[in-house]
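This entry is passed on directly below:
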Amino acid sequence: MSEHPTDEDPDRPSSPPSKRTRTRILKFVGVLVVLALLYYSLFVLLPSELDWATVWADLQALSAWQIAALVGSGLLAIVALGWTSKASLPDLTLYQGTESSATSQLSAFVFPPPADMAIRFAMYRTYGFSDEQSAVAVLIAMVARYAMVVVMPLIGMALVLIAGLGTWSALWWFLGIGLVFGLLLWLVLRVVHSDAAAHRVGAWLQRVASRVIRWFHRTPPDDLENSVVDFGRRTRSTVDRNGRSLVISNVAWGLSNALVMLLCLRFSSVSAASVPLAAVVLTAGLLMAINMLPIPGKDALAVSWIAAILGLTSSTDVSNLGTAMLLYRLVTWILPMPVGAVFFLLWRGRVRRHKAAEVTTA
């Protein structure tokens, strides 16, 4: 009898699955992951963040044109965010910037920042940009976004003070925060435009980080100075070429959020006498900052905080403010979800067609 293994021999090593089989398995796993995320988002996360009975009651109180105006302002904010992406990556189109930023907003619904920036990086690569270009664009966009989260409350505070609605305490807060932010912005620009300044700032950060980390009995990084210098060199050309566009686009994004807040307040019966236009910009800026805080229950706390800052004492005004902030959350947090899903499907379909065309050509 032959000792060679046959097809029925149980001891014969199995051959690895074919590439086509592995691809099908990966696609199946990907579908399961997407379904799991959808289930978590719709049936776990959303119910913990929003009371749908209250949402439905607030929406029923709006007219059709008010709902259309809110949706339109939300879409404008999405396009403005896409403009910030375009400004951070030269040669990126406005459509690509909007597509990538909207898709990243969809991912940010489940994953906290900066996971959404990783989505942008992957999409930039499919647009034909190199790893270097994509990484620099993501870094610039992230820094600009966090900077704008600080700038918007400052703009609001400045408008409140100019309108004569602020107190001496508000003036000192404005001067203090503005001075610190201005100093940090000046340091970042020095790092971008000067290697010598980047080395000095990097060396100082290295010393501070080493001292702080040693307090916790951990090994401090030894390449922080080089990382700062590398950041300056990588971002220099983009800042020099698109600096003005970066500033204008991010301010436009912040003001588009203020427009959403204005509509939400007015549609919730919060009059200009209670919250004037300058205070609307301040409210939008404060909400943008609060939304970045990784603390539980921040939405409930935001109503009392902002009501105290705006000086609202009437229970009716405070209640209407809560309704307005709920509408603002729907427009800026929930609306980007279906929009991002549509852009994601369009992007995935286009990528698959391109891959199929490459295979056919090969």
Remarks:
- The two ends are 47 Å apart (CA to CA).
- The mean pLDDT is 81.
